[in-house]
Each structure stands twice: as structure tokens, then as C-alpha cells.
Design goal:
Distance between the termini: 60 Å
Strand content: 5-15%
Mean pLDDT: 87
Structural class: alpha+beta
Helix content: 40-55%
Order of helices and strands: HHEEEHEHH
Number of domains: 1
Radius of gyration: 20 Å
Number of helices: 5
Length: 123
């Protein structure tokens, strides 16, 4: 056994967690998306293309701008997901994100800052 054999063996067993390895869509991702669609009104899906860092993702945006993001696997999978749940599916690269999503994110940021100031003042 060579000096570095123990390290080589360990690395082979850790392929799943190596940096740069993309995690694919899981049943938990789909379950989260299903639950989110069922509990929100006016949901639309925005598909984000695969990058070197992440797999293809979908952002679900509700009528009030609240949103969630999960892996979806591919544009085809996202379109099937949308058809099955009767929600529109858009490609972010073509349409961009809806204004209500940006506004919701900004409102949440302001609320977090306000809550932080109140905690700081009461301490």
C-alpha cells in the first residue's frame, strides 16, 4: 500500500459530494413545488436554465409576488409540471421575472430591516 492510497480510496467514495457536481431534481423538490402550488393563488412558473453551478430550476410566483425556487430537471419537465397543475410556464431568459416578484422581495427586505431595528432598540 502506497503512501497516498488511503486518500485515493476515500475520494472515490465521495463522488456524490464533490464540489462542482450538480445535484439533480429529487422527489422532495417536486413535493415542495406541489405543496406550494396547492397553497398559493395565481401561481406562474418561471424556468431558469441550467448553469455550471445549478441544474435547471423553476421559480413559482404567486399572485402577491411570493415565490419559491427548486430544481426541476429540464424545461420539458417544467412544462409537464405546469400542464398537470394548469399553471402557465415561462422561460426566464425570454420573459424575465415578473415585477410583483421583485416588489415582494423588496417588501420582505424592508420588513426584515425594520424588525432588526426594533430588536436592536429593545435590547
Amino acid at each position: 500500500m502506497g503512501l497516498f492510497d488511503a486518500f485515493r480510496r476515500r475520494r472515490r467514495g465521495r463522488k456524490k459530494n464533490r464540489p462542482g457536481t450538480l445535484r439533480s431534481v429529487s422527489s422532495a423538490d417536486i413535493a415542495h413545488l406541489d405543496q406550494w402550488v396547492a397553497t398559493h393563488r395565481g401561481v406562474e412558473a418561471y424556468v431558469e436554465p441550467r448553469t455550471t453551478v445549478t441544474e435547471t430550476t423553476v421559480v413559482l410566483v404567486a399572485h402577491d409576488g411570493e415565490w419559491t425556487r427548486r430544481r426541476i430537471g429540464s424545461l420539458d419537465t417544467a412544462q409537464q409540471f405546469g400542464r398537470k397543475r394548469s399553471i402557465p410556464v415561462y422561460e426566464v431568459a425570454k420573459t424575465g421575472y415578473p415585477k410583483r416578484m421583485r416588489e415582494y422581495t423588496e417588501r420582505q427586505r424592508i420588513l426584515r430591516k425594520k424588525a432588526q431595528r426594533e430588536r436592536d432598540e429593545s435590547a
